[in-house]
Amino acid sequence: MQLEDHVGDIIRKARQAANASKDAVAKAGGVTVAEIEQIEDSGSIAKRPNLAAIAPLIGLDPHKLQRIADGWLPENIDTNRWREVRRITTTQRLTVNCYLVWDEVTREAALFDTGWDAAPIIKLVGENQLDLKHLFITHTHEDHIAAITPLRERFPKIRLHSSTRSAPPEQRNRGNDFIHLGSLRITNRDTPGHAEDGVTYVVGNFPDDAPNIAIVGDCIFAGSIGRGFVSTDLLKQKIREQIFSLPGDTLICPGHGPFTTVALEKESNPFF
């Protein structure tokens, strides 16, 4: 699976967050404004700009940015360690991931976001004879909740969890929530910045000592971060506090793009 953001996406996000003009970035990079626009649009350009000069202007790490430009991808992660975790990817205007997690003994299951289409989720639940008890929402942008209505119709007893202010009190996450899914344990950490209601869910206590997983929505991607619709500074702060404080082998399950880990992002994400 390709990265969610190419090098031009990363430059554009960082430039806009830093309130830097295309002209200033082009001048630092030794290219024209048209060439900066081309790299932001496509991620490629015949003449590569001076990334080492651009990066500090827009708050990026120059060495990590260069690695992305050179084709960095997260190392191949053996997800067989998490036998009861499935990534479900659906596409309409864009491609989005959601995740199904269950306890291998009780067959109790939880869904994290819905993606665009309920059909593959319903199929997986049936094939694995699961009891879908919970739906956890990382944030309420359309691509992450588009299939919520058909899923609630198919599973009317499913319990919703979100950090949306308008949600009924019984559906709102609380900081001390500690939800059991058979032997698995689910907690939440506030990660606003991309969205006001952004939240990360951490699932642990997997069989055979498999590491925790963090289902992060659009907070962080392999090699990048989400757009700071609320605040990029707040988003980066929450990533440092709530995600980078997890063990390094924690599997990051993003809303877009491939799996990564906390250690890989600390090492390779140019926003940090």
Overall description:
- With 272 residues, the chain is an alpha+beta fold.
- It has two domains: 7-69, lambda repressor-like DNA-binding domains (434 Repressor (Amino-terminal Domain), Orthogonal Bundle); 79-268, Metallo-beta-lactamase, Chain A.
- It is built from ten helices and 13 strands.
- It has helices at residues 7-18, 22-29, 33-42, 51-57, 62-69, 119-127, 142-145, 148-154, 232-243, 262-268, and strands spanning 85-91, 95-102, 108-112, 131-136, 159-161, 179-181, 184-190, 199-204, 213-217, 220-221, 224-225, 251-254, 260-261.
- It has a six-stranded mixed β-sheet. It has a five-stranded mixed β-sheet with strand order 1-2-3-4-5, covered by helices on one side. A two-stranded antiparallel ribbon has the order 10-11.
- A hairpin with a 2-residue loop joins strand 10 and strand 11 (224-225).
- Helix 2 (22-29) runs antiparallel to helix 4 (51-57).
- The longest helix is centred in the first third of the chain and has 12 residues, at 7-18.
- The two termini are 23 Å apart.
- The model has no long low-confidence stretch (mean pLDDT 97).
